[in-house]
């Protein structure tokens, strides 16, 4: 099992550009999550999904969109990138939403200039 | 307002001694708590968890204690090893939150040989 994979590892964007961060998992997990981590801070939830076709907002959803067309993939879309979106983005998955640990990908480091 | 607080940004311990990492929370709806370990340029990895019906959970060198009345939990690592040097995040989730995790800011542990 590859676990949770994320691409790209690094990306530099100009203000106003758009991009999609890819996330995939091969553990047949229903629940998937996107977090961002700013320097010196904890992770904050952007969006989550409890299954294919179902998504919902987390704590910091503004400026982002998600879709979940398959169990395996959960891409995160940034529209009109802003410097405030400079962060490290982590995708995670778990089999159940309650009392189960989440498995994290290696992260995508995004810089918006 | 931070719902999960890790008030010590860093901790330095001698190899072989005990490391104690602390975490406080404010939301009484939290009923599941987790500790994650994070190395630089990697995603967080799950370490240990505890549900609110327990006050202690042990896994090898790692023990988590939960004091619900004080809204406090701690992670004990005995004995500490240089490979334990990492950032440790405390996280919590509330019943019905679909597993959404609220993270503290982390504590950087350095274990010196």
Overall description:
The complex is a heterodimer of chains A (113) and B (113). Chain A is mostly beta strands and 113 residues long. Chain A has strands at residues 4-7, 10-13, 19-25, 31-37, 43-51, 54-57, 64-66, 76-78, 87-94, 103-104, 108-112. In chain A, the strands form 2 sheets. In chain A, strands 2, 4, 5, 6, 9, 10 and 11 form a 7-stranded mixed sheet that branches. Chain A has a 4-stranded antiparallel sheet with strand order 1-3-8-7, with no helix packed on it. In chain A, strand 9 and strand 10 form a beta hairpin. Chain A is globular, with a radius of gyration of 13 Å. Chain B is mainly β. In chain B, 0% of the residues lie in helices and 56% in strands. Chain B has no helices and 11 strands. In chain B, the strands form 2 sheets. In chain B, strands 2, 4, 5, 9, 10 and 11 form a 6-stranded mixed sheet that branches. In chain B, strands 1-3-8-7-6 form a 5-stranded antiparallel sheet, with no helix packed on it. Chain B is globular and about 45 Å long. The mean pLDDT of chain B is 96.
Give the low-confidence spans of chain A.
none
Helices of chain B, by number, come to: 0
Instruction: List how many beta strands of chain A DSSP finds.
Output: 11
Give a short account of the largest sheet of chain A: 7 strands, mixed
Please state the average pLDDT score of chain B: 96
Rounded to the nearest angstrom, the radius of gyration of chain B is 13 Å
The assigned structural class of chain B equals: mainly beta
Whole-Å distance between the termini of chain A? 36 Å
Mean pLDDT of chain A, as a whole number? Answer: 95
H/E order of the elements of chain A?
EEEEEEEEEEE
Major interchain interface with per-chain residue totals: A-B, 29 and 28 residues
Q: Helicity level of chain B, as a percent range?
A: under 10%
Shape label of chain B: globular
Detail the poorly predicted runs of chain B.
Answer: none
Q: Which assembly state applies to the chains in this document?
A: heterodimer
Rg of chain A, alpha carbons: 13 Å
């Amino acid at each position: 099992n590859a676990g949770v994979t994320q691409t790209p590892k690094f990306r530099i964007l100009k203000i106003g550009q758009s991009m999609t961060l890819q996330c995939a998992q091969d553990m047949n997990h229903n629940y998937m999550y996107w977090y961002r981590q700013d320097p010196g801070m904890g992770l904050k939830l952007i969006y989550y999904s409890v299954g294919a076709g179902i998504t919902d907002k987390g704590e910091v959803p503004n400026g982002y969109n998600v879709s979940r067309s398959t169990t395996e993939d959960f891409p995160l879309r940034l529209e009109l990138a802003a410097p405030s979106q400079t962060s490290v983005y982590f995708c995670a998955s778990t089999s159940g939403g309650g009392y189960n640990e989440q498995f994290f990908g290696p992260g995508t480091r995004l810089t918006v200039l | 307002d931070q719902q999960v607080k890790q008030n010590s940004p860093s901790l330095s311990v001698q190899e072989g001694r005990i490391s104690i990492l602390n975490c406080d929370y404010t939301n009484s709806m939290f009923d599941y708590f987790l500790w994650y370990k994070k190395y630089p340029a990697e995603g967080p990895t799950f370490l240990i968890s505890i549900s609110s019906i327990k006050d202690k959970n042990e896994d090898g060198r790692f023990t988590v204690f939960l004091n619900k009345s004080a809204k406090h939990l701690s992670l004990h690592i005995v004995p500490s090893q240089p490979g334990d040097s990492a950032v440790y995040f405390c996280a919590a989730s509330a019943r019905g939150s679909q597993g959404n995790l609220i993270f503290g800011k982390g504590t950087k542990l350095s274990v010196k040989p």
